């Protein structure tokens, strides 16, 4: 017997490779996107409380009612949009599951899906596993803004879905109201769905605003909004995500979700719901991460030759070394991990064709002392 791979070109994730390399060489891991500090002890105390209280059996497939209600309240507070907790909000096992289920709900064999790249590496494989055809549209090389003419030019009768990511990973670009309105104008009269990956929704800097796609009435009726508490509450290992979508779309979403994960960890849902009684837990997150971004960027500017524009959101900072070297980004990332003892991600990992624009991505969701040590080590990097 032989097993025919459904993802023949897919290898080991670059995040696994670089994290393993960081561990092997005792390097500071600014590669994989997870916080390098513990979450609020109050949150873990709540989790322990709900475990001890006996909330350890299956949750309802769509999520516990109190958490869905909290998410509805968050959306209304942040964006002035009301989603019905009973029929329009579903709890998932992380945002990645939400993304996969949403793609599965709308993509059929031969359907084309527009992905703007650089892009999170789960989008393309999820589309291909569902028989879809990813159509990649590159973002601007300098500021990662959208080339609207190019995007509109690839839309045809086979286009079923457009995947949006704001704040953007890896670049940190944050969609503006004009971006949202432009997308709505392009697809208003077309049978095209949208998935908006908004996992960094509460991490936006310099008094900029996260303008969710749900704010546009045209897009709200076409869009699956996918997010996660992993990034918001510093608990990426809990894998508690969610999807907001109109009732008819949520109905199809839930049909698939029940056969992929069925439900998500019950005591953790209760803990998060109780923790979110205090809105400041997410409303103050941007300021918390901006301090880290500023420390990292100020250090990069003062002590390294990299060129960059400070990220508008997320907890990633991309830097260019095009003016310093012709070395490919993977080799440089490996060399920095081994020699400078700082691990990062080569940006080719976010491009289908491994386009090498001489860009690296660093995660600054770390303790400030660790960021300062990383800057000190990078200052000695030789080009």
From TrEMBL:
The keyword Transferase applies. It holds the Pfam family Aminotran_1_2. PANTHER family: FI04487P. Belongs to the class-I pyridoxal-phosphate-dependent aminotransferase family. CDD domains: AAT_like. Residues 27-378 form the Aminotransferase class I/classII large domain. InterPro entries: Aminotransferase_I/II_large, Kynurenine-oxoglutarate_AT, PyrdxlP-dep_Trfase, PyrdxlP-dep_Trfase_major, PyrdxlP-dep_Trfase_small. The lineage of its organism: Bacteria, Pseudomonadati, Bacteroidota, Cytophagia, Cytophagales. GO terms for cellular component: cytoplasm. GO terms for molecular function: kynurenine-oxoglutarate transaminase activity; pyridoxal phosphate binding. Keywords: Aminotransferase, Pyridoxal phosphate, Transferase. This is Aminotransferase. Its cofactor is pyridoxal 5'-phosphate.
